[in-house]
Amino acid sequence: MRSYFKNVSRIRYEGPKSKNPLAFRHYNPDARVEGKTMKDHLRFSVVYWHTFRGTGIDPFGVGTAIRPWDDGTQSVRNAQNRVRVAFEFMEKLGAPFYAFHDRDIAPEGANLRETNRNLDAVVKVLKEEQQRTGIKLLWGTANLFGNPRFVHGAATSCNADVFAYAAAQVKKAIEITHELGGAGYTFWGGREGYSTLLNTDLKREQEHLAKFLHMAVDYKKKIGFKGQFYIEPKPKEPTKHQYDSDAAACLNFLREYDLLKHFKLNIETNHATLAGHTMQHELEVAGAAGALGSIDANTGDELLGWDTDQFPTSVYLTTQTMLTILKYGGFTTGGVNFDAKVRRESFEPIDLFYAHIGGMDAFARGLKIAAAIRKDGRLADFVTKRYSSWDSGIGRKIEQGQVGFVELEKYMLEKGEAAPNTSGRQEFLENLINEFI
Ligand code: XUL
Ligand code: CO
């Protein structure tokens, strides 16, 4: 078989002192943390769209990426060949999972039937490569935003035919995800929102979206697909406002339309920051609702207000992320999916390796640090003590529903004043985290 990354061999763990840029310093797949291997904790996944379809195009210039394996055509043959390149890359990197949109892997044809045929031809090669390498599909999804037909949205389009097209497309995307043994399927509502409320029937659009998701749940059951469904919150871009704007909005939507039991959330870092939240905030909101499913690992740029999808390298960020993920029991179907792209200026194939190695090492460090903080116990003890007034006395009575306003007034009239507060010790806790970083 032809090799496209001849100068790269399998990326190995060489330890923190290694100066080899093509080695892991922290990600040691078989090393155990809290009784589980790093590989099983992190479940790293490579995204097809940025890593194998990204060209480096931006609003001011054409693509810059050098991808010698790509013949520049929209042919099925080129798409099939790209699959082999992708699997060579993922195998050398040691990533156990990948994720794709239907339109990343295969070109659209003249009509839906031809498009589906193209997909089948590429899925055949994906299946072969999955079998050859043991690499698995973390989740599949459908691109319901790129083609001009989705200009007004897909499930929320004002055009009922577009809803029907999107339904047919998602049906097929769930089928191929099922065929490839995908652990999940993600819905990201790229254009499910609006540009102006002047032309928008918001209530009707949201009802259509709920109807669409119910149809997907029904179909999933019908074909016996057991993978987890995810919604991926994002507040805006390309729309001015997207309905699945953040974790809280998604949970509210799912609850309102009786969908909560069928979905978990796929939380993306740069989407959290676009929503004016931190990643940890979004993870906590999802986790508290029992809906923390998976993450799209990336980061934005503090000085740029759009979705720059950079590779995560901040150990602070990965530590906070892993603290919350471990707190809620770790991943089951989900994983750390690198929805991140190399910069336009990083146009050589080797940059794809540097980017992923850096992200994987940053998460491995975050995992080790989070585990050390949990083992130390001072942070968790502080939080437990902070709420100790709820463990007995009046706090306990409130939590157990034994008292109401009348009893609480009587209690406070007798007592006269609330017990004194204690310090929140934010700086002390920030210093404590730094002890471990
Ligand atoms: C877009 C984004 C998507 C989803 C999958 O911002 O994150 O790529 O992850 O559709
Ligand atoms: Co994403």
Topology:
Blueprint: E1 12-13, E2 23-24, E3 32-33, E4 36-37, H1 38-42, E5 44-47, H2 48-53, H3 76-93, E6 97-101, H4 102-105, H5 112-133, E7 136-141, H6 160-179, E8 184-187, E9 193-194, H7 202-223, E10 228-231, E11 241-242, H8 247-256, E12 263-268, H9 269-274, H10 279-288, E13 292-296, H11 315-327, E14 336-338, H12 349-376, H13 378-386, H14 393-399, H15 405-415, H16 426-436
Parallel strand pairs: 1-2, 5-6, 5-14, 6-7, 8-10, 10-12, 12-13, 13-14
Antiparallel strand pairs: 3-4, 9-11
Helix pairs in contact: 3-5, 5-6, 6-7, 10-11, 11-12
Bound molecules: D-xylulose and cobalt (II) ion.
Report the oligomer.
Answer: single chain
Largest sheet: 8 strands, parallel
Distance between the termini: 43 Å
Q: Which word captures the global form?
A: globular
Mean pLDDT: 98
- Taking pLDDT < 50 over at least 5 consecutive residues as the criterion, the unreliable ranges are none
Kindly state the number of beta strands. Answer: 14
Bound molecules: D-xylulose, cobalt (II) ion
- Percent of residues in β-strands: 5-15%
SSE arrangement, N to C: EEEEHEHHEHHEHEEHEEHEHHEHEHHHHH
Q: Enumerate the strands of the largest sheet in spatial order, edge to edge or round the barrel.
A: 7-6-5-14-13-12-10-8
Radius of gyration: 24 Å
Please state the structural category: alpha/beta
Q: How many alpha or pi helices?
A: 16
Q: What is the percent of helical residues? A: 40-55%
